[in-house]
Specification:
By secondary structure, the chain is an alpha/beta fold. It is built from ten helices and ten strands. Helix 9 links the parallel strand 7 and strand 8. The longest helix is centred in the middle third of the chain and has 20 residues. The structure holds adenosine-5'-triphosphate and magnesium ion. Belongs to the ABC transporter superfamily. Macrolide exporter (TC 3.A.1.122) family.
Length: 291
C-alpha cells in the first residue's frame, strides 16, 4: 500500500502540509515523505495564457491569515453582547500587522478567534488558503501547536517550571513525553538558543517569580518560537511593561520579522507601538477601519 496515509495524521494535517502550513520537520516527524513534502516545494507550471497581453496583471499577494465578515457575540444570561460585526482582516506574510482600538473594542476577541482559541458565530477565517474556523478540537490543537506562536500581556508562564522548562512546554505537549524524551537534547539545545537570542541565556534555571516583567515576556517569546511557527499572534505583548522594556520587546519582535521573515499579528492600544508595524488596522464599532 504505497499510498497509505501515515497513522495518526488527519486529512487536515496532510492538507496543511501540502499547503506548506506545517513545517517540513513536522511532516518528517510523522513519516510523511514524497508527494506531501514535495508538494510544498512544488510550483505548478503556469497555465497557458488565453490571450496575449503585453503586461502581466500585477498579482495581489494572498494574505497568510485573513478573516471575512467575521461576527462574534457573547451571551451573558439573557443579554447578547455583539463584539465583532463583520470584520474583514488580512495579514500579509512576512509583515507585522498591528490591531489597535479602544478597550473593549474586540481586539483580543479577534486575535483569539484567529488563533482558534474560540469560534466565530459566522464568517470565515483562512490561514494559508485553508479554512480554519470550523476545525474540531484535535485539528485546532494540531494547527496551534505547529503553525501558531502566541504571546499574551500577562505571559502565562507556569510558576513551578524554570525558564528553560517553560520554553519547552509546547514541545512536550505536542510530541508527548516519550517522543520528547527521545529527542530531548535537540529540543533543549533549541530552547537554550532561543533564550540566548532573547537575551536570557543567563536565566535558564530561574523560575518566573525570579524574573522581571520584561524577562518573563522574553521567556514567553522564546516559548512561542520553540515549535518554529509560521505566524506569531501577540496580544498586548508590551501592555504590562514600562516604555523602555516594552521598546526592547518590540526590538526583538522586529528583529524576528526582519531576520527570519516571521509574520506577526499584534494587538496593542498604544499608537506608538502600533506605528512600528508595516500595517495597522483599527477596530471601531465591531468593524475594521483602515488607518
Ligand atoms: N467571555 C466573555 N463573555 C462575555 N463578554 C465578553 C467575554 N469576553 C469578552 N467580552 C466582552 O467583549 C468585549 C470585547 O472584549 P475584548 O477583550 O475583545 O476587548 P479588547 O479590545 O481586547 O479590550 P482591552 O483593550 O481592554 O484588552 C468587551 O465588552 C468584553 O466585556
Ligand atoms: Mg484585550
Amino acid at each position: 500500500m504505497s499510498n497509505a496515509e501515515p497513522q495518526g495524521l488527519s486529512a487536515l494535517e496532510i492538507r496543511l502540509q501540502r499547503e506548506s502550513v506545517l513545517p517540513d520537520h513536522e511532516a518528517r516527524r510523522h513519516g510523511v515523505t514524497g508527494p506531501h513534502i514535495a508538494a510544498s516545494k512544488f510550483t505548478p507550471p503556469a497555465a497557458a495564457p488565453e490571450a496575449k497581453s503585453e503586461k502581466p496583471a500585477k498579482k495581489k499577494k494572498k494574505p497568510l491569515l485573513e478573516t471575512k465578515n467575521l461576527h462574534k457575540s457573547y451571551r451573558k444570561g439573557r443579554l447578547t453582547i455583539p463584539v465583532l460585526r463583520g470584520v474583514d482582516f488580512a495579514a500579509e506574510e512576512g509583515k507585522i500587522t498591528t490591531i489597535i482600538g479602544q478597550s473593549g473594542s474586540g481586539k483580543s476577541t479577534l486575535l483569539h478567534l484567529m488563533g482558534t482559541l474560540d469560534s466565530p458565530d459566522s464568517g470565515e477565517i483562512n490561514f494559508a488558503n485553508t479554512r480554519i474556523d470550523k476545525l474540531n478540537i484535535r485539528q485546532r490543537d494540531a494547527l496551534r501547536s505547529r503553525a501558531f506562536g502566541m504571546i499574551f500581556q500577562f505571559y502565562h508562564l507556569l510558576p513551578e517550571l524554570t525558564t528553560l522548562e517553560n520554553v519547552l512546554t509546547p514541545i512536550m505537549i505536542s510530541h508527548g513525553m516519550w517522543r520528547y524524551w527521545a529527542a530531548r537534547k535537540k529540543f533543549r539545545k533549541r530552547a537554550e538558543e532561543l533564550l540566548e537570542m532573547v537575551g536570557l541565556g543567563h536565566r535558564v534555571t530561574h523560575k518566573p517569580r525570579e524574573l522581571s516583567g520584561g524577562e518573563m515576556q522574553r521567556t514567553a517569546i522564546a516559548r512561542a518560537l520553540i515549535a518554529q511557527p509560521r505566524i506569531l499572534l501577540a496580544d498586548e505583548p508590551t501592555g504590562n511593561l514600562d516604555e523602555q522594556t516594552g521598546g526592547e520587546i518590540m526590538d526583538i519582535l522586529k528583529r524576528l520579522n526582519r531576520e527570519q521573515n516571521l509574520t506577526i499579528v499584534m494587538v496593542t492600544h498604544d499608537n506608538a507601538i502600533a506605528e512600528q508595524g508595516h500595517e495597522t488596522i483599527r477596530l471601531t464599532g465591531g468593524r475594521v477601519e483602515k488607518t
